[in-house]
Amino acid sequence: MKIVGVTACTAGIAHTYMAQSALEKAAKADGYQAKIETQGAMGAENELTEDEIANADVVILGVDVSIEGRERFDGKKVYETSVSRCVTEPQKVIEDAINS
Amino acid sequence: MLISKKLIDMDIKAKDKNEIIDQLSALANADSRLTDLDSFRKAVYDREAEVSTSLGYSVAVPHGKTDAVKEPFVCFAKSVKGVKWNKQLVHLVFMIGVPLQAEGKDYLTILANIARNIMDENFRSNLLQTTDKDQVIKIINDGEQKG
User: Fold this and answer.
1) What is the CATH number of the domain that holds A14?
2) Measured between alpha carbons, how far is B39 from B63 in angstroms, rounded to an integer?
3) How far is A18 from A13, CA to CA, in rounded Å?
4) Domain around B43
5) CA within 20 to 30 Å of A76's CA: A57, A70, B49, B119, which one?
6) Do A15 and B55 touch (CB under 8 A)?
7) Do A16 and B112 make contact, defined as CB atoms within 8 angstroms?
8) Is the pTM higher than 0.90?
């Protein structure tokens, strides 16, 4: 199972990165591959490549604000939720995304 | 340096999150990080009112992004007993202040690494165990380099 995602919170200084880390850790614990792009105060980091997006089984958007490049995920299975949920219950978010 | 000994309280006594925000803001002000204590506090309160910055793991990360910040900083506080932060019991508080306009992004990178480290159980338990301010700075700085 390959997961890609984007996290972005309002201020872009803390929760964006906590959510990224939480999702990556939870995915690893479940034996999945995950790469999460952050769109915070520094702009986009850990950017997803076209191939990574093309090969992903599911896209998780943990976003409280509108993001750059959303059209990259057109035609993919996209699961959108809040940044806070990605931090508080990352395992559940992944499970829901896969089953969505 | 984003963090200094003056920005650390190893056993904060407060009855709620507002008291913690007030006390930590006062530390930041005393360390010349702010241009305006009241408007910084207001920015942090406003941010808290949007969504609580306590999202489990016994941690809260209140923050203010405002022109009332002169020098970016991280305040750290520990509550041995724990403080009720909305519905969560919080033992570790990282309060972040950044100016509205980011000049250079080095400190944002450091803050992002601290945020990622907060999700690491060892990082949290090391901070919970130590009683020494130098050690707190070391744990937070070591985390910075790990990325």
Assistant:
1) 3.40.50.2300
2) 13
3) 10
4) 5-146
5) B119
6) yes
7) yes
8) yes
